[in-house]
Amino acid sequence: MRRAVRLAMALAILPLCAAAQTGLVQTLEENEAAMTPPPMGNQAGLDAWIAAFRPRALAAGITAPVFDATLRGVRFDPAIVEKDRNQNEFTKTVWDYLDTAVSDDRIALGQKALAANKDLLAKIEAEYDVDASVIVAVWGLESAYGTFRGKLPVIASLATLAYDGRRADFFEGELIAALKILAEGHTTPDKFIGSWAGASGHTQFMPSSWASFAVDFDGDGRRDIWSDDPADALASTANYLRYWGWTRGQPWGLEITLPRDFDYDQTTAAVTKSVAEWQAMGIRPMAGGDLPDHGRASVLLPGGSRGAAFLIFSNFQVIERYNTADAYVIGIGHLADRIAGGPPIRASWPREWRALTLPERRDLQDRLTRAGFDAGGVDGRIGPKTISAVKAFQKSLGRVPDGYPSPDLLALLQN
Question: Angle at Cα 98 formed by Cα 264 and Cα 194, nearest 5°?
């Protein structure tokens, strides 16, 4: 699909993930915001960093001509640093995320993309044993089916982030991998553009992921995920998912109903049961009938007891390898289902709630801990210990212990 798409349509389906394989999606799961950010850098600082980085890059196999030609004139971009540092401040509820991730426009364009690339996707599906609808869903969320692949030079983005220092080792490694891509001629600097975090191509691979998983599916001698032809990019995504254990024909999950007396302590990723065990507990598919048996599964409540409930299978964890946020995984899985003709999520969401900000999540943890419910620290990360503390607090009040950190729950702690 080419970029000649009406602006209104493009805005309706802008990609939701800034960088594949890095877990940078804006959700309650993010955990890397600095408590006291270092001072903002500048061009002189970046220039000095590049000079200091040069011997390390050469030692890693980058030739001096490639390094000098590629890094010469790279500009420091403070907007990139701001986006990296402030990811946690821009949280979304899962329902707000899904409203965009699985919008009517994105579904319709996904079905068109599936039909337009039917032969290519059939070959990829046969080669890698990964469902075509899932490959298309990744394509849809990462670059709006190739129409919005980013607009920032990958080298400049990675150099800026490596120099900033918050995750220096990670971004320096990605920068070296990016330099190797150019040195080997897989793309050119003018085409090597992507997101602010350095992900690029139709399915937004980081350079290290390209090195490990990109394939030359069209046989032209290059693993080119950046051209208008999506063949290499879509096959590379299938290769990535296959490597992490994708099971063709298995759902990522399915919407379920819970019995009135359901034990909410069972709703953690650590609790897996056979389908027969979940069925014996009274869980049923939202569509009715018996639960399909696709192996061991867990119950997920991304919006608490007042939102949709899902039974998730091992393919859920495979999508997590692309991005670890639950909202992203559900977005990919549900978009794939809808592209394939599946139904929308039927349960309602508690739409009067917004997501807690980073300061509010820290306040929640602090107040839980001071009330005698160990939240595992005050870092703003809503991890297993914080969820366990929320459940214990809810139980002490006689409320449904679903572990969801809602604004109402924070208000109870504040009063």
Answer: 125
Report the distance separating Cα 345 and Cα 72, nearest Å.
Answer: 51
Token pair listed for 225? 């995920």
CA distances from residue 270 to 244, 265, 273, 387 in whole angstroms, order as listed: 19, 10, 10, 13
Total Cβ atoms within 10 A of residue 281: 15
How far is residue 306's CA from residue 158's CA, in Å, rounded to a whole number? 41
Number of other residues whose CB lies within 10 A of the CB of residue 208: 17
Least confident of 7-11, 224-228, 269-273: 7-11
Is the per-residue pLDDT at 371 higher than 80? yes
CA 250 to the chain's CA centroid: 20
* H, E, C per residue of the chain: CCCCCCHHHHHHCCCCCCCCCCCCCCCCCCCCCCCCCCCCCCHHHHHHHHHHHHHHHHHCCCCHHHHHHHHCCCCCCHHHHHHHHCHHHCCCCHHHHHHHHCCHHHHHHHHHHHHHCHHHHHHHHHHHCCCHHHHHHHHHHHHCCCCCCCCEEHHHHHHHHHHHCCCHHHHHHHHHHHHHHHHCCCCCCCCCEECCCCCECCCCECHHHHHHHCCCCCCCCCCCCCCCCCHHHHHHHHHHHHHCCCCCCCCCEEEEECCCCCCHHHCCCCCCECHHHHHHCCCEECCCCCCCCCCCEEEECCCHHHCCEEEECHHHHHHHCCCCCHHHHHHHHHHHHHHCCCCCCCCCCCCCCCCCCHHHHHHHHHHHHHCCCCCCCCCCCCCHHHHHHHHHHHHHCCCCCCCCCCHHHHHHHHC
Rounded to two decimals, the pTM is 0.89
Between CA 133 and CA 115 the distance in angstroms is 11
